[in-house]
């Protein structure tokens, strides 16, 4: 792995204790790229100038992008994303993060009409993904860890990069510096186990998730998924770092 260009620094927006950078932390440390967390759900705020941050990763969460009344800090977060878009810094959104980016870009986010995707699902790349600098080396079809009940429309001028049988917008690129992923490329085995426990504690028995099938699929699929995460983050940094920093 290459070392990072001098001055590269990532801000990760966090919405819940159990939703962090996960395996991305491992990749960033190997690349020697510093990163910080901004936990907007706890009331933390940050100047919209973003100071010295060169990249933004917007993580997942159990809330919905349209629940601004219940979670007023979502308005602040959307302002922060909008400013990052205006500055043309590199942005990645994961699950809720992808939905928030889509919302800021003018697309609709809503409860999925085909039910939730929770567990490992097949995701298929679109022809446009073959030319995408971050996804072009992914397998044409792969198992991805999903954990969502909402979906979003494709923003105007965005390029769809991946779909599943339930929801066609699984990944998109906007311009040449912004990516949204509906699936959770950042997961580790520990994160998945924590989500299973948290979900089943919050829901009555009929809505609980049997852990064994997901645990078994995780053992089978996680290693290849994390190899894809390596490529994704390395390429994200490489193609979105300003020339003045990478030279």
UniProtKB/TrEMBL annotation:
One of its GO terms (cellular component) is cytosol. It holds the Pfam family GATase. GO terms for molecular function: transferase activity. Keywords: Glutamine amidotransferase, Transferase. Residues 43-189 form the Glutamine amidotransferase domain. Signal peptide: none annotated. InterPro entries: ChyE-like, Class_I_gatase-like, GATASE. CDD domains: GATase1_1. SUPFAM superfamilies: Class I glutamine amidotransferase-like (SSF52317). PANTHER family: GLUTAMINE AMIDOTRANSFERASE YLR126C-RELATED (PTHR42695:SF5). This is Type 1 glutamine amidotransferase. It comes from Oxynema aestuarii AP17.
């Amino acid at each position: 792995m290459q070392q990072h260009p001098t001055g590269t620094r990532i801000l990760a927006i966090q919405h819940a204790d159990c939703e962090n950078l996960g395996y991305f932390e491992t990749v960033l440390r190997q690349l020697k790229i510093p990163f910080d967390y901004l936990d907007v759900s706890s009331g933390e705020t940050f100047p919209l100038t973003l100071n010295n941050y060169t990249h933004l990763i917007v993580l997942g969460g159990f809330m919905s992008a349209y629940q601004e009344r219940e979670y007023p800090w979502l308005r602040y977060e959307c302002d922060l994303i909008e400013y990052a878009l205006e500055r043309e810094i590199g942005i990645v959104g994961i699950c809720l993060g992808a939905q928030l980016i889509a919302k800021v870009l003018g697309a609709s986010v809503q409860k999925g009409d085909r039910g939730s995707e929770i567990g490992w699902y097949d995701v298929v790349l679109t022809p446009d993904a073959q030319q995408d600098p971050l996804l072009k080396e992914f397998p044409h079809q792969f198992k991805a860890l999903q954990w969502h009940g909402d979906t979003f429309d494709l923003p105007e001028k965005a390029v769809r990069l991946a779909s599943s049988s339930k929801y066609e917008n699984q990944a998109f690129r906007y311009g040449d510096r912004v990516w949204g992923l509906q699936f959770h490329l950042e997961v580790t085995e520990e994160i998945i186990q924590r989500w299973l426990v948290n979900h089943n504690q919050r829901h009555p028995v009929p809505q609980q998730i049997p852990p064994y099938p997901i645990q078994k699929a995780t053992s089978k699929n996680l290693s290849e998924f994390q190899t894809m995460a390596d490529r994704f983050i390395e390429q994200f940094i490489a193609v979105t770092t300003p020339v003045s920093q990478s030279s």
